[in-house]
Each structure stands twice: as C-alpha cells, then as structure tokens.
C-alpha cells in the first residue's frame, strides 16, 4: 500500500488500502464508529482493520468524517463557508503510538448564518468536484441529516441541513405511527401523492402525520402505503423549504441508492431532472484529492 484512505462515521469505519497507481488494494469495514469509541480507541480500531497490511515504513493515512469531531480522535477545526472543500493543507495531524502510521484528519465545514455544520459530506463534494470540475448548481446529500449545498466556481457557497432521515426513523419506530407502519414495504403512488400534498400545504404537516394512524384504524390503510406516505410527507416538506435551492438548478444526488431514488422521484415529479452518483466513489475520490494535495506539499 502507498497510503490509506479512511471514512470514519458515527456508526461505521471504512478503510481502503491504496496503491501507487490510485487503485484499491484492500477494502475493509467494521462497526467501530466514532459513537462507540473514546479517544484512546481510534488507533487500535484502525490497526485492527489494517495493521496486518502495513509495511515496516511510515504509511500516510487520510481520514474524513466524525474522527475529526470534538468527541473524535482529534478535533479538526471547521473551515468556514464560502470555501473550497477542505483538503490536506488544512488537515489535523494526529500523533500515534504506532510509528508506521502518519494520520491526517480532514476538517469539516461550518456556516455562520444560519448556523450549520457538515463533517464528511465535504469530502464527498470534493470527490464529486474532482470528477466534475465545471459543476455549478446544487448537491443534495440525502441521509439521516440531509444536506443541500450550493456549489459555484468550485466552492461550497452555502448549505442547509434537514433532519428528515432522523425524523422518519423516530416517527416510524418510536411514535404512535409505528403501529401502522410496515418494516420495509413501499408504495410508489402513495409516496408521490404525499410529496405533492406536503409541498402544497407544508403547514398541515402535523395533522397529516396523525392521519396516517387514523386511516389505519378507520380505513385499514395498508402499512406499506403508510410508510411510503410518511416518507413522502417528510421529503415533500423538505422540498418545499429548499425550493430556493433546487428550483431551476442542476441537482446532483450523493448518498444511499434507495434514499437517493426517493429524492430523485420526488424531484422528478416537479419536472426537475437530477444526476445520481455513487456515494462510496465520491468519498474515495475526495480522499484521493486530499492525498494528492498532501504529496504535493511534502514533495
């Protein structure tokens, strides 16, 4: 391996051992996410995955994600938007006990007004821009906390975060609505109808949510349709709020395939074509760009 690329999330750890030609020699992952580690646990967790593949020399390690949070391996201070996606020139160097590791943690991005933060998504954006250097538009990153990011001239101009994914999980698994939901079923027509309803009357959201339970009790609403309608109501409300971001724009989606399809379908119903990408590839391309920066600095 020439170097190691690391994506360290709250609940997962992904590692790629990279060759000199940019190819992936080793790919490993585990559930040793930031949320289950204290500061002393990061180096052992990384070595548990990749230690046997290290040589005797020093191997550069480029890390993105929650390892750089205040509760992570070492805090990597945020860059402030508007800015280019941060790279190795602003990375935080971490002292390690194992001298075979030379660890650099990439910073996240913050926004002062309205206050917002991202950590990890900026590396995916860097990867997307490495492949699409002339892109000017909006990148949407669906997830637990969905990001809408305005990109212009290679910079993150502004962004907003929506807790849509977390709200879906809480409502479908921990609220009264859980009694009316299917575990994994789907109804495309119910989803599309709910998106349109939420976009036309977002102020009616709380009542529409309870009606899912009421319709299940009174009219035997199908649990698959209820789950799809819940998703549609939440995503539709988000699209209503983000209309200034996406209306008339070129939109690229980066994220989980299933979730990105839901956003693509919702935006497509508004007559907006979108570009879907491979999330893992965007992360890796962003880490590659950071490593290229590190090599340039140290050469």
Protein architecture, described:
With 299 residues, this protein is an alpha/beta fold. It has 2 domains: 1-112, Nucleotidyltransferase, domain 5, CATH 3.30.420; 120-299, 2-Layer Sandwich (Nucleotidyltransferase, domain 5), CATH 3.30.420.310. Helix content is 38%, strand content 23%.
In terms of topology, how is this protein built?
Layout: E1 3-8, E2 13-18, E3 24-30, H1 42-50, E4 59-65, E5 79-80, E6 92-94, E7 101-105, E8 109-111, E9 116-118, H2 121-131, E10 137-141, E11 146-152, E12 155-162, H3 164-174, H4 188-200, H5 205-219, H6 223-241, H7 243-246, E13 251-253, H8 257-268, E14 274-276, H9 279-298
Parallel strand pairs: 1-4, 4-7, 5-8, 10-13, 13-14
Antiparallel strand pairs: 1-2, 2-3, 6-7, 8-9, 10-11, 11-12
Helix pairs in contact: 2-9, 3-6, 4-6, 5-6, 6-8
Please tag this protein with its features.
14 strands; five-stranded mixed beta sheet; 9 helices; 23% strand; 299 residues; six-stranded mixed beta sheet; Nucleotidyltransferase, domain 5; globular; alpha/beta
Kindly summarize this structure in a few lines.
This protein is α/β, with parallel strands linked by helices.
CATH topology of the largest domain: Nucleotidyltransferase, domain 5
Molecular shape: globular
Write the element-wise H/E pattern from the N-terminal end onward.
EEEHEEEEEEHEEEHHHHHEHEH
Please give the largest β-sheet: 6 strands, mixed
What is the tally of beta strands?
Answer: 14
Quaternary state of the chains:
single chain
How many helices?
A: 9
Examine the secondary-structure arrangement and name the CATH architecture of the largest domain: 2-Layer Sandwich
**DSSP strand content:** 15-25%
Q: Give unreliable regions as ranges.
A: none
- Kindly report the spatial arrangement of strands forming the biggest sheet: 3-2-1-4-7-6
Mean pLDDT: 96
CATH level 1 class label of the largest domain: Alpha Beta
What's the helical proportion of residues?
A: 25-40%
Distance between the termini: 18 Å
């Amino acid at each position: 391996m020439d170097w190691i690329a690391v994506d360290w999330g709250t609940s997962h750890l992904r590692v790629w051992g990279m060759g000199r030609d940019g190819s992936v020699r080793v790919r490993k992952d585990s559930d040793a996410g930031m949320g289950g580690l204290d500061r002393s646990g990061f180096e052992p967790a990384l070595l548990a995955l990749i230690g046997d593949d290290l040589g005797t020399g020093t191997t550069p390690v480029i890390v993105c994600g929650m390892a750089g949070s205040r509760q992570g391996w070492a805090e990597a201070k945020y860059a402030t938007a508007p800015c280019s996606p941060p790279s190795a020139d602003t990375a935080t160097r971490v002292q390690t006990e194992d001298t075979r590791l030379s660890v650099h943690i990439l910073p996240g991005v913050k926004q002062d007004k309205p206050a917002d933060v991202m950590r990890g998504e900026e590396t995916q954006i860097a990867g997307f821009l490495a492949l699409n250097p002339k892109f000017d538009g909006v990148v949407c990153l669906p997830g637990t906390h969905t990001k809408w990011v305005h990109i212009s001239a290679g910079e993150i101009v502004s962004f907003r975060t929506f807790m849509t994914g977390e709200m879906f999980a809480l409502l479908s698994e921990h609220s009264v609505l859980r009694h009316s939901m299917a575990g994994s079923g789907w109804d495309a027509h119910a989803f599309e109808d709910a998106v349109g309803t939420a976009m036309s009357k977002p102020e009616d959201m709380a009542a529409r949510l309870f009606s899912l339970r009421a319709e299940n009790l009174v009219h035997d609403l199908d649990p698959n349709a209820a789950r799809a309608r819940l998703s549609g109501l939440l995503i539709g409300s988000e699209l209503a709020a983000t209309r200034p971001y996406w209306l008339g724009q070129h939109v690229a989606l980066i994220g989980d395939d299933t979730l990105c399809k839901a956003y693509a379908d919702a935006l497509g119903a508004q007559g907006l074509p979108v570009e879907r990408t491979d999330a893992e590839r965007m992360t890796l391309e962003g880490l590659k760009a950071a490593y290229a920066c590190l090599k340039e600095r140290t050469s």
